[in-house]
Amino acid sequence: MKTVIDAVKYYGGYNYVCGKHEKHHTHIANAVGTGRFYSVYASDIGGDTIICTISEYNQRIYDYKTNLGRMPLGSLELWQGRAKQNKSVFTQEMHGNGELPSVGMECLVKKLHQDDSMWLKCFIVGSNKDGDYLVYDHSIRGLEQCHKANGTSEFKPLTPPIELIDGKAYQFDYKGRSSLHGIHCESEGTFITRTDVFKSSICTNIQPLTVEVK
Which fold has domain 71-158? Predict the structure, then answer.
C-alpha cells in the first residue's frame, strides 16, 4: 500500500497546489495498483485509496524542509530533483562496511536499544544543517534523527521484495511481533490473520507459506 512518502516522491517534494478544477478537493489519493496520485473529494474516492488530506501532505513537506520547524535541512535539494536522480539502493555490502544510507534511499531502521523485531521501513530525507544528524522518515512516527557519530538508530537493507499474490498465505513480522501468519488481500493491501489485519507495506521478513506434503 502506498504512503504519504510515496506521494511526496511522486510530486517531486513540492507542496500540492490544487489547480482551477481541483481547488475544492480535500484529499490526495492513489489509484490502486499504480504509482499515480491525484486530488479528490473524499466522498468521490470510489475503489482507490485515500493517502492523506492535502493539508496533511503540505505539512509533511514543511516538516521535511524545516526538520519539524527546528532547522533547515542541509540537503533540501532532494526535493528539487535529487531524489529522482538517485537510483541507488542501500546494499548489504554497504551495511557490512559500516556505511550509512544516503539521501533518497529506503531501508529498515530501529533504535539501538530495541530488539530485532522492531525494524521498520524508512526513507532517508537528508541531514541537518551541520551534517551531524541523518534525518529519516517512516509512516509510523514521522521524522526522526540519528547522530552520525554515536548513532541512536541503526539501519539495514530492505528485505528483497517478493511478489504478493492475492489470497496466498504468508509469514511476516510486524513491529514487535514476529512469525505472524496471514492471507494477503490485494485490494486492501493487507495481511488478514485469524484475529487482526496488518498493512502489508509496513510488514517485514515476508515469506510465502507452503503446504508440506507427507
Answer: SH3 type barrels. (2.30.30)
